[in-house]
Amino acid sequence: MSAPAERRTFRIAAIPADGVGVEVVAAGRAVLDALASASGGAFAFDWTEFPWGCGYYEKTGRMMDDDGLEALRDFDAIYFGAVGWPTVPDHVSLWGLRLRICQNFDQWANVRPVHFHPGVVPPLRKADHTELDWVVVRENSEGEYAGFGGRNLAGRGPGNEVALQTALFTEKGCERIMRFAFDLARTRTRRKVSSVTKSNAQQYGMVLWDEVFARVARDYPDVETESVLVDAMSAKFVLRPEDLSVVVASNLNADILSDLGSALAGSLGLAASANLNPERRFPSMFEPVHGSAPDIAGQGLANPIGAIGSAALMLDHLGLPEEAERLRKAIDATTGAGVLTRDVGGSATTDQVVAGVIERLGL
Ligand SMILES: NC(=O)c1ccc[n+]([C@@H]2O[C@H](COP(=O)([O-])OP(=O)(O)OC[C@H]3O[C@@H](n4cnc5c(N)ncnc54)[C@H](O)[C@@H]3O)[C@@H](O)[C@H]2O)c1
């Protein structure tokens, strides 16, 4: 993620959307604004907040404005909360906002670090933040979430409708995400890429994926590789996570595996992610992995670490790697000091964690 031109005021579109998304985006913004105001004018964030989400849908019949993509196009980045609420069908809310942005802005690489934090007791017996640390690289533009298919034959009467949901695998789509994963592996202590498929059962798309992986791997002789079926990889996440560095997988498989990873690290609320358009033709989008958590929304219980970690990924992307590292250290110092929300065994509120991180930024 290299630095853009010299501009130091970053225009960021904030889309908190629904449920705890509102709370965690406010948390991330507070931390980023604290960093900016302590930078002595070196950089600043110019925020524009968009009201889109399920509440907007109930009022207007749309998850976002018709010209919403045009409105977003010129921002330096998008900072996203979570979309979904019980009053709107999940496929309507997800496709109407988050997937619409990801797909139209060709954010084809979704980076989801599985990071273990000091002070958080994870369910894995062998887990230790000093030795476990891996990244899930998710193909974010096609695969099982390509949106191809249809429903028909309901006219034949009750019980006769059929639905097709087709996964799309292109050589180009496979190759670009694999090169991204290999390039990322070269920046890490352990240079290894694990490719995940279910190519024993899915003999077209995923066999193509395997073949492209073998071909791309030949260009990276310094990077260790393995190909693992998704069922075996889910077991490996639990039993041998120390053997992982970069895990590259299709849209659905990586979505599931990264939730497993964040749960193993202690909570869904901890996991950060970046939806990248690596060519920078469009803004990239940074968001916690978790959803809108209707069960705890509005109570000050949301863990903001995933959203704050996503803000650190955004700083990397904006060309502020030192600030990103400072923020990551402040997050770890906060969890290490036992300032933890309820989902990770503590009693701190969202605001107390935010205050803890700001206090430890060393400003
Ligand atoms: N990227 C997204 O916008 C996204 C991702 C996943 C789900 N969703 C949507 O979110 C809604 C709820 O989905 P779900 O319940 O399957 O998943 P969820 O991630 O919202 O919640 C799953 C569990 O994790 C907990 N949790 C999630 N985030 C937390 C946080 N920050 N702090 C503490 N605990 C947290 C919740 O309380 C819940 O028990 C649905 O409408 C779904 O479509 C959106």
Task: Give an overview in words.
This protein is an alpha/beta fold and 363 residues long. The chain has 2 domains: 7-113 and 271-363, Isopropylmalate Dehydrogenase (3-Layer(aba) Sandwich), CATH 3.40.718.10; 133-264, Isopropylmalate Dehydrogenase (3-Layer(aba) Sandwich), CATH 3.40.718. The protein is 37% helix and 21% strand. It contains 11 helices and 12 strands. The protein has helices at 20-37, 54-60, 68-72, 90-104, 171-185, 205-217, 230-239, 251-264, 305-317, 321-336, 350-359, and strands spanning 9-17, 44-49, 77-82, 109-115, 133-139, 143-152, 162-168, 192-197, 224-229, 246-249, 272-276, 284-288. Strands 2-1-3-12-11-4-5-10-8-9 form a 10-stranded mixed β-sheet, with helices on both faces. The protein has a two-stranded antiparallel ribbon with strand order 6-7. Helix 6 (205-217) links the parallel strand 8 and strand 9. Helix 5 crosses helix 6 and helix 10 (321-336) crosses helix 11. The chain is globular. The model is unreliable at 1-5 (pLDDT under 50). It binds nicotinamide-adenine-dinucleotide. Residues 20, 24, 82-84, 90, 94, 98, 267-269, 287, 290-296, 302-303, 306, 343 line the site of nicotinamide-adenine-dinucleotide. Residues 11-357 form the Isopropylmalate dehydrogenase-like domain. Keywords: Manganese, Metal-binding, NAD, Oxidoreductase. One of its GO terms (molecular function) is D-malate dehydrogenase (decarboxylating) (NAD+) activity. It comes from Pseudonocardia hierapolitana. Belongs to the isocitrate and isopropylmalate dehydrogenases family.
